[in-house]
Write a structure and sequence with these properties.
CATH topology of the largest domain: Four Helix Bundle (Hemerythrin (Met), subunit A)
Helix content: 40-55%
Mean pLDDT: 95
CATH superfamily of the largest domain: dinb family like domain
CATH class of the largest domain: Mainly Alpha
Shape: globular
Strand order of the largest sheet: 3-2-1-4-5
CATH architecture of the largest domain: Up-down Bundle
Distance between the termini: 33 Å
Length: 245
């Protein structure tokens, strides 16, 4: 197993356990980074995602398994934590039992198990941050992981996101990681996201750590957050950073 794959799997393991720990604290706690959500709803969402991905991988599905075939969370609030933990175990076992290059359906342009190993790491980490934010200051996202999350979002997810019809800004955005290697220039290429990893001047620019860039890209923090520097066309920057919502 590559080092990268091992890191993703550890993030999935530890992050899922942290989400479960939040559920044990208070299922009714509000999640400020996901307006209208409680910890209970976060567990329900993530537990269902785990079951969907786990089933696609376990069955090596080459076509999409319809959403109505994926179990929904239990109606009884007291059962949600165990249901979540079962889903967390299921997706880990499914991914551990498959090679990264094995073929499996995905909605993106990468149709193998490696896509889901990476996707589940980032999905879990952003929701780990959400769950901890319900009880105060969450632990930061690792900078290297965060930088990889930025690349995944703009290079893999948004160009192929199903039912995504948001208009792209005409102005370009340059993202610059301040605590390690990582630069991205985002351009509207005829209505499609074009990403190049280069040092270049954009109409807007944002500088932050790798972890904070991921939080910005997923709408968890804003341009006025501590440690974030923004330059140029702020409206364009906000529009690019709102695309994940």
């Amino acid at each position: 197993m590559s080092t990268e794959q091992a890191v993703y799997r550890e993030v999935l393991r530890a992050g899922g356990e942290a989400v479960a720990a939040a559920g044990r604290r208070d299922l009714d706690a509000a999640v400020p980074s996901c307006p209208g959500w409680t910890v209970h709803r976060l567990l329900a969402h993530l537990g269902r995602v785990y079951r969907s991905v786990g089933r696609h991988v376990a069955e090596r599905a080459t076509e999409m398994i319809p959403a109505d075939q994926i179990p929904r969370p239990p109606a009884e609030s007291a059962a949600i934590l165990e249901w979540f933990e079962q889903g967390h175990r299921f997706v880990q076992e499914a991914l551990d039992g498959a090679g990264p290059d094995e073929a499996v359906w995905s909605w993106a342009d990468q149709h193998n198990v490696a896509f889901y190993v990476r996707r589940m790491a980032h999905e879990t980490e952003i929701h780990r941050w959400d769950a901890e934010a319900a009880f105060g200051e969450p632990s930061p996202i690792d900078s290297d992981l965060g930088a990889d999350g930025v690349s995944e979002l703009f290079e893999v997810l948004l160009p192929f996101a199903p039912n995504w019809d948001a208009a792209l800004p005409d102005a370009s955005l340059h993202l610059h990681r301040t605590d390690g290697a990582g630069e991205w220039l985002l351009v509207n290429d005829g209505g499609s996201v074009k990403v190049s990893r280069q040092h270049a001047k954009g109409d807007a620019a944002v500088r932050a750590s790798g972890g904070d860039l991921m939080l910005l890209a997923w709408g968890r923090i804003g341009l006025d957050s501590p440690g974030v520097e923004a330059f140029g066309d702020a409206d364009a920057a906000r529009a690019w950073l709102a695309l994940s919502r």
